[in-house]
Amino acid sequence: xxxxxxxxxxxxxxxxxxxxxxxxxxxxxxxxxxxxxxxxxxxxxxxxxxxxxxxxxxxxxxxxxxxxxxxxxxxxxxxxxxxxxxxxxxxxxxxxxxxxxxxxxxxxxxxxxxxxxxxxxxxxx
Length: 125
Description:
Elements: E1 2-3, E2 6-7, H1 10-20, E3 29-38, E4 41-49, E5 59-65, E6 71-76, E7 87-94, E8 102-109, E9 113-114, E10 119-122
Antiparallel strand pairs: 1-2, 3-4, 4-7, 5-6, 5-8, 8-9, 8-10
C-alpha cells in the first residue's frame, strides 16, 4: 500500500517527524501604536504581538522612521515576553524634525529579522 508516493512505513515516520518539529512563530506584528509630544520630543508606545518561545526566538526591537527612511529612534527589547502577549513598551526623547507629521514603525524578531509590516502613525499635533 502506498500513500501519495510513500510506502506504508514511510507515512508513519513522516507523521512522527512532523509531530516533534517545534512550532515556528510568525513574524512580529505591530498591533497598535501611539505618540505624544512633550516639549520638543516625543514618546512612542508600541504594542507588539509575537509567538515568543524563549531566548532563542522573541520580538527584540521596534524602530521609528521618518517617511524618507531616516531612523529617528529605536526600542531594544532585552528579553522574551512568552507569558505577556501582546505587550506594550514605550520610548521617550525621540526628536521629530519639523515638517514631519507621520512616522513609520517597524518591528523585528530574533529569528526572522525585520517584519514586512510597516505601521504608519500620524502624529497628533
